[in-house]
């Protein structure tokens, strides 16, 4: 079976496997809903979360704007959650766009060429992985300045390590295989061998890593914002959790309950989709 046909069969079988599992399909729908909310936020269609809709700390009621009650300023907690969804999904998409290309390129160059290039890349990801992830991100965020762009760059700058290791290992295995040697003998350049011959056979690693990176970025943003390093202006789930810590003392539970519920659904859905992608795109399925 040719490599091209094998890849087509792999992705076709993966699609069938994903669509045959009801929980995976439901999780995909949940993720799609969150993405739709984020898109509506960018189009300025969502309600203004800063608008006062009732009195301070109104408990949840059946009114659409008051499903999760109001905060200290009488603003709808639901509207704040929707605005925070826009922030969370934006970060969840930006971080993989930074981390995945870095991991793929460095892993490919390291695994294909070996030698001093491999030694340099291995030293680089060994140094990064030896330090606590959250501390590195906080340090880079402080250097770049607080805000969404800073934490996206910070998380993307260290989030490529695992993918780089995986891609490097696969390139080391593939660079000595017959189809690569045959192409090299026929005069194919290194760039063609790397990006057109070997990389398509390991691209499933980037897909799986990207889906998991979305999950990690959303959780990390909440942690960083809660610690005072992340989002400073605008709505954020981390900001809501930070504010809710003091409100619990006053028995004001609904702001925290609302944001935790919103986080639970998207994190659980991304976990299910990520695990399903990892299982479905395993090349061993074709053995």
Helix and strand arrangement:
Layout lengths: L2 H17 L2 H21 L34 H37 L1 H15 L3 H12 L3 H11 L2 H14 L3 H8 L4 H37 L10 H11 L6 H27 L7
The number of distinct β-strands equals 0
Radius of gyration: 22 Å
Query: Globular, elongated, flat, extended or rod-shaped: what is the shape?
Result: elongated
Main sheet summary: none
- DSSP strand content: under 5%
Order of helices and strands: HHHHHHHHHHH
Mean pLDDT: 84
Give the helix tally: 11
Distance between the termini: 11 Å
* Secondary-structure class: mainly alpha
Low-confidence stretches: none
Describe the structure.
The relative contact order is 0.15. α3 packs parallel to α6 and α7 (161-174) runs antiparallel to α9 (190-226). The radius of gyration is 22 Å and the shape is elongated. The mean pLDDT is 84. With 287 residues, it is mostly helical. It is built from 11 helices and no strands.
Defining traits:
about 290 residues; mainly alpha; 11 helices; elongated
Short overview:
It contains eleven helices and no strands. With 287 residues, it is mostly helical. It starts with a helix and ends in a 7-residue tail after the last helix.
